[in-house]
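Section handout 9: paired folding examples.
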Amino acid sequence: MVKNSGIIVLDASIKMAFRLFEAKMNEKKKEEALESAKKLLRTAFDSSLDSFLIFKSKRNEKSEIVDFIFMEVNSRAEEMLQMGRSSLIGRDMCEVLPINRSAGFFEKYKAVVETGVPLEEEFYLPDTNVPAAWHYHQVVRSGDGILIIHRDITERKRADLALSDSEEKLKSILTNITDVVWSLSYPALKPLYISPSAEKFYGHPVQRFYEDPSFFEELVHPDDRHTTLKARSELFETGMASRECRITRPDGEVRHIIDRSRIARDSGGAPVRIDGIVTDITERREAEARLRETFNFLQSVLQTTRDGYWVVNDRGRILDVNSAYCEMTGYGREEVLKMSINDIDIIEDSEETAARLRRIVANGHEAFQTRQRRKDGSIFDAEVSASFLDLGAGHFVSFCRDVTEQKRSQEMIKNQLKEKEVLLKEVHHRIKNNIASIASLLRLQADSIENAGSRHILNDALGRVESMRIIYDRLLLSDDYREASVKNYLEDLVSAVGIFPENIKITLITEIEDLSFSVKHLFALGTIVNELVTNSMKYAFSDRKAGAITVTLAKNGGVVALSVHDDGRGLPENFDSGESAGFGLMLVNLFVQQLKGVLSVENRNGALFTITFSV
């Protein structure tokens, strides 16, 4: 910008006006020539893009300048001040524009008049009645006054500030970016700019690259230097190029990089420079290598597994299979890749397959059994595990296993098991009948013996046999021959114990939790209950006409407690169940040991036997 252009324009206009005036002076009509000069001067004055303001000094009685008086303004000045010429001429400057005094301009203007030294400056004025924010003015002495040439430079300043801000941001980016940004002149290929990151990137000072532009190629790995000519040829042919290569740092570390470049052209299309950016892709290359290793490993697993594997899209079209599935179906790989699931599956139609795929998308996974057809037309049973793989394309990954032989084996085992169950049921039935026969013989023998002691012995044996018969009854009524309900068994056993003392009314109470036990446990518990209830009936109520026996069984956590409690006369002092000579208590101790339990005996309003064991 030519800052004194306003004065140059004004000076040229004045000189032209005077030349015209002198020419007219040679003529007769001098007054007309003068008027024409004035009009030309006024036209130039008003046509200027700058504001022109002419002031006369206002002095006091001491001849000191106290203000400046408006003498003339052009149209541009009227627009700037938003006041007409007639409203300004003759008025004091500081009255119209108080800012001139408060901001110190008046003192500067006065110095111009007093010293004759022109003033030229740019300044910022916020919140004034003048629309502009940034201003430029040139002030010169004119007689006993001043001429001010003013220009609004707000837009230029904003552009300069925006450019400066943009340059600062770009500088910050280029300083902190890890990539290397570079620019070369064209056609000399001399470095114009290399970003500071080059030093950390290459391990050499940036200045080294400015001093020797070919130094970069010395850092390229020897096996990759052939990429230079190829990239340069591509750049000059197409205007842009990209190459990947390796560089060697001073510490010997090898890094993978990608160098992208393009030719910058002027508005006429002529090349002016070459710009580029270099990015370190070592981590990406290493990740790609690890990914390839993982992929190769998974491919090896998929190809060596005996299970079939396939990938389908959301329409059921087969996209990939392994060799195991090809062997399973008899199709070649290329044949399978032209098929959909419904070409092989004979259970589901296309709508059912679509519904299943929607369920897999919703749940992420589904396992199911189906039947598929081989290439030779034979059918095989298949167990399929399918998962949804959400990688944008919506693929489904499935593993398939031929379970035809397995299902045949399961069916054979099931049939054999049914046969064995029928046989076992018949065996149990025969054992039950044999036990019943033994019980009948014992009962007949007991009834025929007059000796009370012998009869009691046979009745004890009968009770033990009866406990075994009840077990087999319960097993025959159960679907499971390995275990049965302890509640039903013990309640039946207690009610079947028939050794009641004559003329004594005994009440039997059972409080048994409904648990299932194995036959081994049931036999032991039945024998224990039979012996203890029989003993209570025989000895607890000899001097009574009534009594009660309570049998309880409950589980607390992993421990089961069985108790037999009568309200009879109780046990003798110093009673020891382990030292008792009776066969019944000997059996009780034997089966308590079999249960790996603990027997405790105490008098508590009668005899109380408690057995605890873990399950």
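Moving on to protein 2 of 2.
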Amino acid sequence: MNIRLVAKYLGYISLLMGLFMVLSLPWAWPQWGYRTDLRLTHQGFENHGFNGLLLSAVICWGIGLALFLPHRRVTGKMYHKEALAVVALSWAMATFLGALPYILSGTMRGPMVRLTDEAENRVLVTLPRWQIWNSWAFVEHVSDDELRLVRTLVESGRRGLSHRELQGLETSQSPAELFETMQQKPLWSELLLGPGQGSAATPVDRAAHYRIQWRNMGLVDSWFESQSGFSTAGATVLTNVDDATLVPHCILFWRASTQFLGGLGIIVLFVAILGHGAVGKSLMRYEMPGPTKEGVSSKMQHTAWVFAGVYCALTAAAAILYLICGMSVFDALCHAFATISTGGFSSYNQSMGAFVTIPGVHGIAIEYIAIALMILSGTNFVLLYLALFLRKFGACFRDIEFRAYILILALLSLLVIASGFQFQDHGFETIEEGIRHGMFQVVSIATTTGFGTSDFDRWNQFSRGLFLAIMFLGGCAGSTACGFKIIRLVLLWKILRIELEHMFRPRVVRLLRLGDKVLEDAALPRSILVYFALTILIFAVSWLLIAAIEPNETWGGQSQNKLLDSAAVVAASMSNVGPALGIAGASQNYANFSSVTKLVCIFLMLLGRLEIVPILVLMHPAFWRDQ
């Protein structure tokens, strides 16, 4: 193992990370970062976000120079070991460095108090100090007046309540006196903030309000958000991205940029810019998703430029289409990054569904455009290059994977739409709404994008179960989608058919074909079966692990859903879908989970993005030996 050569290329990656952080800095100025919904636009310069990003960029450059300069003259051939190490370690390093802006900017995760749906007067709270195991604890014996006050404060968000709004509450005693009485209790003294209390960063218009304490993003939360971005998962721990005082616009843009980089691929970008001949070929071989590497040619820099060109062209087209439909520049870029990368991060709490409610915006058109773009993003980029740049449109329809991809999406959409109308689900009030919501959610989950226009977790049980299965699906090989990949499912079907026939016709020899092409690689069937076996094994172990280690308090009074929710969380993390079911469903997030569960999800997202093998290989002790 040539450690010095690996360190040299990791230095390049760190320098590139710092560069992209700097590109997010202009959005700290209000002239750049305004939103489509003008009610959410910030009013001043985002000092904390700017400083956090700038300091993070400086740290990235410092680490990059420390890795690169001592080894800048190191040369040598990059073998499989070095290529695997660079690919896996560059993703791990990028996600860790990508967490710095969240920490250093003081980005807020969510309130430190939760309400349960139980009839009993109990409130879930989390303490200011960091805990790796049990994040939430019940506060028993809360009076009706205290519960009403806490509920109102939680619903008011970080803004809180003015004195006049607080006095409007109907309680048996003065609401202000009740607030002061609760503050004198040991636990509530750390969770409630009165006028003039809190940090110096609190906006002036909120400093005089009564409010609930919000938690800053710590190391695990920031690492989770960064990993989700670079893995294009779209899972988030941020409770309220609508409020710029909680999540600055420049941080939101960095969050979207991590998905842009993750969808393009850090190594693809690196090879496109720097080339590096045979080194680039070795790196791309482990970076490219899918079981076959047909797009990996000997001219690696050309191949990287093809992928980067198609990716950037689709991103630019998405941004222009969103602008035409009424989005602001900020929102158009953020959602274009999230759409083409199949990431799913939105700059609104309601995701894509927010634009239907904004006056002057063609929200319905945005949803149909997003459906088409997500389908394209889940298509093999080699086919898109042939169709869009070389005008060989027939190549798409001759490709067996693309035909299976479109057929599966159409069939699943029909099933979800039919069941939605059958059970009269929310969002299926009219024919047009039902077709739009059904298609959108199927395409979003199947391509591992994770956008939402409706809370599909409130739909019928058949649709929910179908979505759980769809999470494993993924798009085509050579796309930005994660998951199994359609080509693997096609090959698995063919392999199983051959093996079943061999059971009763042992003398018949069937060749493995893909269309008219015979696949002569004897190791391919074994690699397909090993991949599926590893996926099932990791899923089962992770599912039971989360069910065992995650405290019941995380579910409040709904711990009977723990087993299903844990399975959905593992599936959504491994396939980088993002939203799962239940506590981590379309209208929820991952903020309520303990730190140890978030660390498990971080590992699963990295495994899913690099398709398991490169990460597992690094964990083998023999990998690091010279012989």
